[in-house]
TrEMBL record:
It holds the Pfam family LplA-B_cat. Residues 21-171 form the BPL/LPL catalytic domain. It comes from the Archaea. Transmembrane segments: none annotated. SUPFAM superfamilies: Class II aaRS and biotin synthetases. It comes from Halopenitus persicus. The lineage of its organism: Archaea, Methanobacteriati, Methanobacteriota, Stenosarchaea group, Halobacteria. This is BPL/LPL catalytic domain-containing protein.
């Protein structure tokens, strides 16, 4: 399974990089994991775009200096400050070793393993009224990681966002967004791994994740490459 690094400043181009990996998986049947730092933007879910107040919220986000992207799937808005770390694991949907629950568990285990031995070890769960609430989150004092999954005919995409730093900024903007969409949110639930271990940066977190994924995969060589969609 290849581990792919690299991102782009333009949000649309960065999203196309993951789409390219999905196409490669569908054509070849090979699994791949992308670990990277997405550009500064807010990713809205499909349900967000149908709520009253969405147009005003989009305008506020743009005025705050953030690009806007609408995901093709559900979930709630997620703020990327340019220091968050994302993981996208793309695998053949028919791969017998992993069904939907096992894919969630495996991705979470990579994050847990990458942070093991630091002062930012995570556990499963999330506080009430967290950002982009879900059943497969990871937390320290507050939520640091959200995990989601999308399955197509050919491939399964299991993805995570991990907050490293900029907790106050993420909490502030998320609060404004969720208030504007009339969604429950407690800004105190936002947490970041660097708040618990000052040695952790986006670069070191990505390196630890890559090492953890390589250490735990049992299917041959791993090739790191820069994506060019």
């Amino acid at each position: 399974m290849n581990v792919v690094r690299g991102g782009f400043d333009a949000v649309d181009r960065d999203a196309r990089a993951t789409a390219t990996l999905l196409d490669r998986c569908a054509a070849s049947g090979d699994s791949v994991v992308r670990v990277w730092r997405p550009p500064k933007h807010v990713a809205f879910g499909r349900r967000d775009a149908t709520r009253d107040g969405y147009a005003d919220v989009r305008e506020h986000v743009s005025d705050a200096g953030y690009a806007v992207r609408e995901r093709a799937v559900g979930g709630r808005a997620v703020v990327h400050t340019g220091t968050t770390v994302s993981i996208a694991w793309i695998a053949p949907a028919a791969e017998r070793r992993f069904a939907i629950p096992e894919r969630y568990d495996r991705l979470r285990s990579w994050v847990q393993g990458a942070l093991r031995g630091t002062h930012a070890e995570v556990s499963e769960g999330e506080p009430p009224n967290s950002w982009c609430p879900g059943d497969h989150s990871l937390m320290i004092d507050g939520k640091v990681c959200g995990v989601a999954q999308r399955v197509t005919t050919d491939c399964a995409l299991t993805a995570a966002i991990l907050i490293v730093q900029d907790v106050a900024e993420i909490a502030r903007l998320t609060s404004r967004i969720y208030d504007g969409l009339d969604l429950s949110f407690d800004p105190a639930t936002v947490d970041g791994v660097r708040d618990h271990d000052a040695t952790l940066s986006p670069k070191t977190v990505i390196s630890r994740l890559e090492s953890e994924i390589r250490h735990n995969d049992d299917r041959g060589k791993h090739v790191s490459e820069v994506i060019d969609p």
